[in-house]
Amino acid sequence: MTDTFETTLVNIISQKSDFESRDEKAVEMAVVLPLLRQVGWNTENVSEIYPQRETSDGGKVDFDLQIAGESRILIEVKRWKHNLDEEDEEQLTKYCQSTKPTRPKLAVLTSGRVWRLYLAPTANKGNNSELKRFEEVDVIADELSEIESYFRQFLARDSMVDFRPTMRAAKDLYRKVQDFQEQKRLLTKAWNELTNDRDTLTELVLSFAEIKNIQTNPDNVLRFLDSLQVSLVNEVPTKAKSRTKMPASFVLPTSPASKGNKPQQLKNRSGWYNLLSGICELMQSRHPDSFHQNTLSMTDRFAENQNSKFSKPVGDVGIYAKKQLRSGEIKDTCDMVVTKFGYPEDSLTILDSNGVRL
Q: Domain of 114: which CATH number?
């Protein structure tokens, strides 16, 4: 019975406990060479698979896969239990840079179990002097069909005869990896900002709870968030923050020229967007003729029609606020609103549920 890629891989997996106590040679013989045979390489022809290929810097790479005497793929093999690391990548980089007269197109670092696929460096200095990883395959954890697909697309002999389509596919995957890393960086930054802004996070949870018809309040949400200890994985722990207070009422003189007034309790529940709604509703009741003109002149905060950017209804006044404003931005917006109607900048006082000024 002729072995297939599947039967070869099943045989490898069945020996995984044995590999754990063996060295690199066992991985080369029982894992690397059988898989290369399944994707078209003649493992008995040293003009195709050049073992222990010497490099110009005096090193020896485990396998140099060649087509017509030209290097196509370098493979460096480690022990099955070895965790591939930066030192291994540096070693493989030097091998790629020291392979003459032709440099490889791709490079592989493998422990037999994990296979890391790289675009090989094309220079000794600059942006193109490093390995560029575009895929990683785990022969134990990944789906068999997925493993075979990557081997046939990138490591098969036929894919290296005319290597241009293979290289285009590898570069496309690398670009996707880079795009993901950049998005991950930006999302991590955004997540850190969100989790550090408890007011905004509380507002988001309250809004979602409202959609789900969950009866709660800001204090309970804050206690819930504290119990989760919201943080990013691998983020260095910081000192515990004091629980953020939410606005529950505000004080505004009855007119720009007067002083003092009783606190205006927010309707429905406390919260920063509700504070903004309460102030706008009060301004509309006091200044109905000029309300829309004054508020809609603040084009970076309000809009007359709801859209993706301005989606937060402001009370019952018929305008929409910019979504995802932070607590400080909402407080500034409230101050801007009252000054639009002639009130002094320091005339607005915001209080929490205990009557403490925020």
A: 3.90.1570.30
β-strands 106-110, 49-54 pairing: unpaired
Both tokens of residue 266? 């927010």
Among 131, 148, 177, the domain boundary falls at 177
Q: Which long-range contacts (CB under 8 A, 24 or more apart) does 339-345 make?
A: 340/283, 340/294, 340/295, 340/297, 340/298, 341/256, 341/283, 341/286, 341/287, 341/290, 341/294, 342/256, 343/252, 343/253, 343/256, 344/256
Separation CA 110–CA 284 (nearest Å): 69
The model's pLDDT over 67-111, given as tens digits with 9 standing for 90+, comes to 999 999 999 999 999 999 989 999 999 999 999 899 999 999 999
- Let me know if 238 is exposed, middle or buried by CB neighbors in 10 A (0-12, 13-18, 19+): exposed
Q: Which domain holds residue 347?
A: 249-351
